[in-house]
Amino acid sequence: MVRIRLQRFGRRHRPFYRINAIDKRTRRDGRVIENLGWYDPIASDPAKQVSVNGERVRHWLSVGAQPSDTVRDLLARLDLLTAEERKAWEAQREIDRKRVEARKAAASAAAEG
């Protein structure tokens, strides 16, 4: 199975990632099938944080490639997901938000009592 995931570059405390199509069994920095773009989380300008070849990403998604959670968030921000994938992503985000709120409420209740 092919995954669309991040490959880390950059020095310590200054990460830079390439967005790649990689076989699922390959290690993080292993052999790449195709380079699809890059992600620079430290860049101050949001327009310079992500660059993705949308046409190739759509191709890989159409042939069954599965994005990692982080890449799925990036693709959703760039509006590159299909309608079904976007619905699933929003549903998962809502579940995650509720889980975080429940943890915060439990932590505050434990601190009070």
Polypeptide structure, described:
With 113 residues, the chain is an alpha+beta fold. 42% of the residues lie in helices and 27% in strands. Strands 4-3-2-1-5 form a 5-stranded mixed β-sheet. The N and C termini lie far apart (49 Å). 16% of the residues are buried.
H-E order: EEEEHEHH
Largest β-sheet summary: 5 strands, mixed
What is the share of helical residues?
Answer: 40-55%
How does the helix and strand content classify structurally?
alpha+beta
Tertiary shape: globular
Q: Helix segment count?
A: 3
Strand order of the largest sheet: 4-3-2-1-5
Strand percent estimate = 25-35%
How are the elements arranged and paired?
Blueprint: E1 2-11, E2 14-23, E3 34-39, E4 50-52, H1 54-62, E5 66-67, H2 69-77, H3 83-112
Parallel strand pairs: 1-5
Antiparallel strand pairs: 1-2, 2-3, 3-4
Summarize the structure.
This protein has 113 residues and is of the alpha+beta class.
Keywords:
single chain, globular, alpha+beta, 5-stranded mixed beta sheet, 113 residues, 3 helices
